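User: My collaborator sent over this chain with a note saying "see what the structure looks like." That's all I know about it. Can you take a look?
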Amino acid sequence: MSTATREAIPADVQALEQRLGAYLPPDQIARVRRAYQAGARAHQGQKRQSGEPYITHPVAVAGILAEIGMDAETIIAAILHDTLEDTPLSRAEIESEFGATVAELVDGVTKLDKLRFRSVAEAAAESFRKMLLAMARDLRVILIKLADRLHNMRTLAAMAPEKRRRIARETLDIYAPIAQRLGMNRTRAELQDLGFRALYPDRYRTIAARIKNVLGNRREAMGKIETALGARLEQEKIPHRVASRIKSPYSIYTKMRAQHKSFAQVMDVYGFRVVVATTMDCYRALGAIHALYKPLDGRFRDFIAIPKANGYQSLHTVLFGPFGAPIEIQVRTEEMDQVAERGVAAHWVYKTSSEPATAAQARAREWVAGLVDEQTREASSIEFLENVKVDLFPDEVYLFTPKGRILALPRNATALDFAFAVHTDVGSHAVAARVDGNLAPLRQRLNSGETVEIITAPSAAPTPQWLEWVASAKARTAIRHFLKHLQHEDAVDFGHRMLDRALDARGTSLDAISGEALDRFLADARYKRLEELLSDIALGNRMPDQVAAQLAQAIGGAQDLLPHEAHAQEKILISGAERGVLSFGNCCNPVPGDEIAGYLSAGKGVVVHRMDCPNMPEYRKTPERIVAIDWDRDVTGDYRARLRIVVDNKPGVLATVASAIAERNSNIENVEYQERDQQTSTLMFTIEVRNRKHLADVMRGVRNAAVVHGVYRYP
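Assistant: Without extra context I'll predict from the sequence alone. Here is the result:
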């Protein structure tokens, strides 16, 4: 391949080479030049929406990666990252010219062909899933993707408004949180602000203008605080640099919304970063700063001793300031500061699996490995993507096992999340927990610093209700995996009944559809067997009416038939044995004998509600998810019911009521006081009954107790 002269190389490529010259040897820069020439030829004649030659985009992406010191292979892959998707250049040609690693990186970033999927959303989700698998092999894939997204966001103005909003929403939901999870705070902050500006331009302009005004008014005060901090650290002979921190429009906007605060309340904080030489200096500096200004109680966080999951380390403290506003201060070393800004990309010398990685890289790989393990259990790409979103929430709680091991879990995590974080088997057999030595239910939310011990029993197993108790993707995936496998036959049977009913409403049946047409439909929908489709219907991942309409189309025009009124009234009868695919709404607690309807909830299957449930009006807004069901003649099992019982406010009434319930052969699951005054108390009992008749019998027995004023089913 001929080498172009310096004059023939565009200014942006010359700037890229100059930046690379600061840390790469000349032979590697020559490889980057060859990659540019190959990319320019491949993209010849292609233009961006702005009218610029297309090659300017991959060169800009390479420039972003060069700013954080990425290696030559990453830079080359960035320059070629769109060639496999948009040009005739093949993977074999890339591998021949630039090596297998570059070819693997380019392939990992390349999107999948959208024509293979039912929707743009599913194409994007499957593309994301593929990218994560490539990340597991090589973390540099996501760094290229983040740089690609960052440059696209910087040049978003050329896009149509609808596309601009869609890309901005995806950036805020997925890519900015991934940058945060990988510790790349500088990239994350820019992605968030660009996404916010594209999605809500008026709000962005208003907040940005107000920030400018506030900073202008407080420049003198910030200067005085900075000088005082510097003088105190000089006095203690601690080498340092102090910089003020300015909140971004997006961070202010999210705080205003989350904390229901005004702009003035959110901005009424001074922020500074103190960077020192060593870890010991961090603690010395903290002591000096606390001697200068009094710290606020309970606002100190030590992320050096317990780093965040993305490798972030720093000391955080909040002080009483001299101007009536709090001062937020972060104290860290230069190395910690680089990791905080660049995350996994800090000091990048790419490590093989046999070589030691930085702490941030090791944590990132551990996270990605966990995602890969989850995606093997998830059939639906969209569901997998939703789980990843849950895991990307930035707020975390840090918890201890009895042996002192630290586990980081998402905000609002429960003891059940903790159990699955310890091990899937521990989670699957969990029955209760001890939190700081006190017995606690599995659904109890946990707080940072607590020590949690999980109590297990061999007979315990996940139930559909557990899905309502967990906040982490790992726990949710494991529970769904268990329910899908253990209750597969139930799911197939129930899905079959639901599909039969939907087809019957269109005047056809599965038997009327030829084997070839059915196989073709399953292949298009990416199912290996009919059983997988039926199970997905029962679990709420596919709508039976939509599947019936598509199958009916296979026999020639029947998809246009509206459901017959006579058929539409037919109901699926349930016996209570279908617990793997059926759950019962906690909002209304239906029992056999109640008038009921089912609501298809993705991943949970059919949730049974009473027809008079307070939530039914909302569910009826999506009629395609309503399943017509009724109780079979023979119903098995116990069912939860709630009773509101008004009693005398005196000692011994709880025992009297509990005894009356037990005499009617009903178990008490939970009891709590709701209201209390001088004369009466209101008790809420959660009990188990066999059917409506049994419930009436229990209520009659309780009502007969002398201390009881009234018994009501709740709700």
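A starting point for your reply to your collaborator: The chain has a mean pLDDT of 83.
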